[in-house]
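Section 3.1: Structural characterization of target chains.
Under the original work plan, the team committed to producing a structural model for every single-chain target entering the pipeline before any wet-lab resources were allocated. The record below documents one such target. The sequence was received from the expression subgroup and is listed exactly as submitted; it comprises 278 residues.
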Amino acid sequence: MRLRGVRRSSNIEDRRGRGGGGIAIGGLGGVGVLLVLAIGYFTGIDVTPILEGSTQSSTQREITPQEEAAAEFSSQVLATTEEVWSEIFPREVGAPYEPPVLVLFSGTTSSPCGGASGATGPFYCPLDRKAYLDTQFFATLSQRLGAEGDFAAAYVIAHEVAHHVQDELGILDQVNSVRQRAGEAQANAITVRLELQADCLAGVWAHHVDGLLEPGDMAEALNAARMIGDDHLQRSAGRVPQPHTFTHGTSEQRESWFARGYESGSIGGCDTFNASSL
């Protein structure tokens, strides 16, 4: 992705180098545990490390050159999402776009949606309308998940920003309301549609930054979508895929909806909730 000359976003909250910030189950209390579980269930965040972890001490450490480069990259990608959605919203929604803040952290941090660590992966918290990213996640994405390339990393950021777009559109509240009345399997199925819509909206962003793309960038994003499909992740963990437990969609579905968003370039092309098939 060609980012030379692209501005850096000012909507960055930099917590890198602070360390610590982990939340222990003993410090949450019964209500706190239920809140973390509920938020994790709704947003798709893996809260296991929070519930199984222990309180971690705050430490200061030096930021590596690799992390600094990842932070600059993230800031520039975030800036492109701001420009794209600020252009699309007045035209398609008839309202201005209010961009999210991207929280960059190292190791662990806290959020209103619970503790965050490298194990949770990037996520969007609707309670404070911020996206959270451990800058070391890009290495995990490439080395452990098999999703290499800078545009694979950009796709991940665009996906989390897409959840903010859904929040701006009122979709997250609607989904949460439906989920509260649904059984587990049905709630998971609704969450899959939510996540696939975010993939599609990330594709819409990709459509509008096409001039910044380099040869192979789309292949990197599509590969990333495949590598983080529920079926692929469950097989990689040595498990037989269980569709009723899926919360993000299969590799094929994630790849397909990202491609649909890229082809349409429009929010209207991402209505996963009324799609007869995914």
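Residues 14 and 69 are 13 Å apart (CA to CA).
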